[in-house]
What does this fold into?
Amino acid sequence: MNSKDIWIYSLTGILAIVIITGFFTYSRVSKDINSLRSDLAAAKQDYGLQITGLRDEALSGDDLLRSEIADISEEVGIVKNASAEQKKQLEESKKEVSALGERIEGIKDVGTDFATIVKNVINTVVTIKTNVGQGSGVLVTEDGYMITNYHVLAGATTAAAFTYEGDKFQVRLVSYDSGKDIAVLQARGSGFEFIAFGDSDDVDVGDRVIAVGSPGGFTSTVTEGIVSAVDRKGDSGMRYIQTDVSISPGNSGGPLISTDAAIIGINTWKIAATGFEGIGFALRSNDVRDYAENVIRMDKNDTSWEFD
It folds into this structure.
């Protein structure tokens, strides 16, 4: 064997060792790669599960958050509605307090002004004396027309009117309605002081009022009280204002006067039974005015009469 053959054999051996070593190295690396791939797959699957879990938790949390937001929005809406209702109630309370304040001030004013009102109306109220009794009346025109109750004149053949100053005037019966218990008279003369009708529909329970008349023959007597009810119906079907103003025989036909110095009723009757006090009734001014204005208008157009 020559040196050339030795070199070839040596090279072949070295190559065989390299190939064998490379094969084992490749096998080991391939196994490591496969193991790494398996680990990566397992890790990917695990991370996938974790990501899915986190997404589910996020979705669940989002649903919960949306639900809580909806609940909070609903509660906010309720609070807003409650606040609006409370604000409305507060505004109404303010109005009530304001109205009460005005009413209190009005009562204070009335307390000091009733004397002025009485002075302004006292000369418009007359005492009516007949041959069978007496009552009261009130002048409603400058030319002497006056209102009283029919029952003040019932059965009488003569009548006269006396003013607060004591002046006596002849009167004539213009018209009457016994069912309504209203009568219209006229005094001879002109330039009489008179008082206007107020609107009885504007009268409220609790309003302060005065009555002027001649109870028991005590002329120009003034009594004070309040309105107890505004629409009492009597047996005749007429409507009355109920008051606690002191009314006695002789007050009938006299005016019930408001704090505006206007006639809101004609004092007509009271409950006089034992155990009852302060229950008087006045014909509503609107009913009396409708009747009286119609009668007076027709009477002024009638020239067939004259005072005796």
Q: What stands out?
A: The first strand starts at residue 125 and ends at 130. The helical segments are 3-121, 150-153, 285-300.
